[in-house]
Write a structure and sequence with these properties.
Shape: globular
Pathway: Amino-acid biosynthesis; L-methionine biosynthesis via salvage pathway; S-methyl-5-thio-alpha-D-ribose 1-phosphate from S-methyl-5'-thioadenosine (hydrolase route): step 2/2
Function: Catalyzes the phosphorylation of methylthioribose into methylthioribose-1-phosphate.
Family: Belongs to the methylthioribose kinase family.
Order of helices and strands: HEEEEEHEEEHHHHHHEEEEHHHHHH
Helix content: 40-55%
Strand order of the largest sheet: 1-2-3-7-6
Pfam families: APH
Strand content: 5-15%
Keywords: Amino-acid biosynthesis, ATP-binding, Kinase, Methionine biosynthesis, Nucleotide-binding, Transferase
Distance between the termini: 58 Å
Number of helices: 14
Structural class: alpha+beta
Length: about 400
Amino acid sequence: MSQYRTFNAADAVEYAQQFGGVDDPSALVSAEEIGDGNLNLVFKIFDNQGRSRVVVKQALPYVRCVGESWPLTLDRARLEAQTLIEHYKHCPQHTVNVTHYDAELAVMVMEDLSSHRIWRSELVKGAYYPQAGRQVGEYLAQTLFHTSDFFLHPHKKKAEVARFINPEMCEITEDLFFNDPFIDHERNKYPAALESLVVSLRSDDALKIAVAGLKHRFFADAEALLHGDVHSGSIFVADGSLKVIDAEFGYFGPIGFDVGSAIGNLLINYCCLPGLLAPREAAEGRERRLSDVQDICNQFASRFLELAKEKTRDVALAYPGYAESFLRKVWRDTLGYCGTELIRRTVGMSHVADFKQIEDETMRTECIRSCITLGRTLILAADHVADVDALIARIRQAG
């Protein structure tokens, strides 16, 4: 049995030579650590021609930006690998291919995506991938339907819920999404000029009751195997292609959480573009973000309903009209979880490049204000926004 140790570049090369699945393992000669997150080491493995061939990813036993005072379970590497493997079965065109994993070393080997770019970085630059929204919607429909009660036998579903229990990583989500931003917490960080706005979140009874309901459903509604952290930084894009990565938060939870997280990050970019681009380009980019949101929601809903009509196995769930009724519940959840994503990325500790790369401090503060305000609005209005067209109209009206 192997024993855990933190990899360096030489370790990653040796591991890739053994488990990378390339025809000539000896051709793998160097590695570069490219991880930019807080939870993992990520190594690109290069051959003797300088080409990146595979990726080796290892989970760290703590949050990198905090250190050993915030320990993390290494079992999340197993959960991430198994979530991606399960999602790949149902949507290989939009899920990174995990070719090997070692639960004890907390290491996995994945396909190289050097031909792709991180979607968040592209959005910050103003680049547009017109197919990306539909592709994300397809990924969400395929993975969430095929791991839900609509498709799985009840015995299989219950066994899968047990297999993907992920309490430590879920606790991080529960704190960062539903607790920290709505209390005075040391992890929160936001511009001092927004103090009164942030304080108002803590005393808004209607908001806190709605957030409590969202957290309770996150606890209780084991609807499908979620990615658990679908944001533009966990999506790689290229012309005509899109791949989802980084599923260490995978567990069975409410479907609207994944959908809401995905569109929430696009709305973060929508709020930030006036600080990132010149006025004309920013206006064009904001319209494209709204188009992306529409594409995700429409593709997800239409494909989920098609799959439900074709493949639902449970006689009660197959009754005409039930899938549509279920998706109305998912939509309300989607809006609420989208709102919590907007607030946790601005008030809480998980800030993103969309804000960080706004150079003008005053503009950055106003973009953050817009994001917080939109997040609050979506949480409170979730029961009153009928569909994605109504959502887009409300966002445009808010300016």
